[in-house]
Design goal:
The complex is a heterodimer of chains A (55) and B (236).
Chain A lengths: L1 H8 L4 H39 L3
Chain B lengths: L6 H33 L13 H28 L2 H33 L7 H20 L5 H14 L3 H11 L19 H41 L1
Helix pairs in contact in B: 1-7, 2-3, 2-5, 2-7, 3-4, 3-7, 4-5, 4-6
The chains are: A mainly alpha (55), B mainly alpha (236).
Chain lengths: 55, 236
Amino acid sequence: MASIDHFLAMGGYAVFVWPAYGVALVVMAGFAIHGVAAYRRRQKELARLEHEAPR
Amino acid sequence: MLRFANPARFMRLSAAILPYCAGATAALLAVGVILALFVAPPDYQQGEAVRIMYVHVPAAYMSSLVYAVVALGSAVALIWRHPLADIAAQEAAPLGAGFTLICLVSGSLWGEPMWGTWWVWDARLTSVLVLFFLYLGYIALVHAFDDPTRGAKAGAILALVGVVNLPIIKFSVDWWNTLHQPASIFRLGGPTIAASMLWPLFIMALGFTLFFVTLLLVRMRSRLLAARISALRLAV
């Protein structure tokens, strides 16, 4: 337990280190989730349209 | 190069390499974060605050690299009028803005404890802030016209003009007096940073690069699907 606290404290720089990793995580995960969700949505939409109007 | 840039061929090729890119991204970022947080040593001057560097430096490098991609795509689109080049530039730009934001915020979070200030208006910080606004300006300009081809063209011209900012960012730490430290990795005579810190940094930078490649492919495929959807809707 003490070692986890020690790790999280980041030698007294916790309030600077964790937000730096936090902003990277939020921005990159946000792009990844949004990008993949939009892609899947369009795949489904295209499949539906091609099913409705077969050529 | 342009032979591979036909949309149908792009869809086939990108589908084939996408799983490998995604897998490599996940593996590199996982290993990189573990190395950065647990394995890399604290700095003798900065202590544990040095771990911010493993986010800041890769994000900074990506902010310039992605801009180069946007500019290159814009140049190809303007010269050869290739539609995929425009799509690549437009889908890369928001990612570049994201990396620049990570760079600015993490740099600020490092500056406060190390320099004693969140921000200074010196050449390096200001030129990176200009880069951030170039991304935003490009994205806004692309969407500012009713006719998307005019928006793409105006954006491409802005992206090319903005290229002058890239060498300014790179050499700002040599040309002007600044709080920001000079280059310690990509410099003549080799890196001046210890191997125990260089390796985590290198793996994080590679992870960030592959993250960009993977997501750019997803976003470009997504755009091409959207084009097909609207074409089908018109045909119905």
